[in-house]
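To whoever is on call:

I kicked off a structure prediction for a single chain this morning and the downstream step that reads the tokens threw a length-mismatch warning. I double-checked the sequence; it's 127 residues and nothing unusual in it as far as I can see. Pasting both halves so you can look.
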Amino acid sequence: MRFKSATISVLVVLGAAALVLLILAVNLPMAVQWFIEYRYKPLLSSNQLAFQVSHVGKSRTLVSDLRWGRDISADLVSVSYDIQGLGRPALQRLTLSGLTIQARYDPDQGMVIDPVFAGGSALLATG
């Protein structure tokens, strides 16, 4: 009888642990996005940067709906990395998909992409 109750207790503990891990895995993209927004809050707010973390995996993270100001956007950013021990991951590949940069021509300033930098616009010299 003791063996039976001990087995049931072990199964309940393992089931609860599996449920906790499942909940963490499902909410991992939201947790990573929160951490990035918390850690880099001054950068994100000053440059009007917005994004959505859609997948976090062992060797790749996907960021969708990336917007930087009103003129620069990307549909999907794929970051591939290699985790080596307990250190920081080593970046292997960064892929931008659907990159859109809108610019306007100003006769005095040339091509203007606005806003790229916190203090103003990026100017591309023409001719």
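Update from on-call: the warning came from a stale cache, not from the record. Cleared it. Sanity check on the structure: Helices lie at 2-26, 28-39, 41-46.
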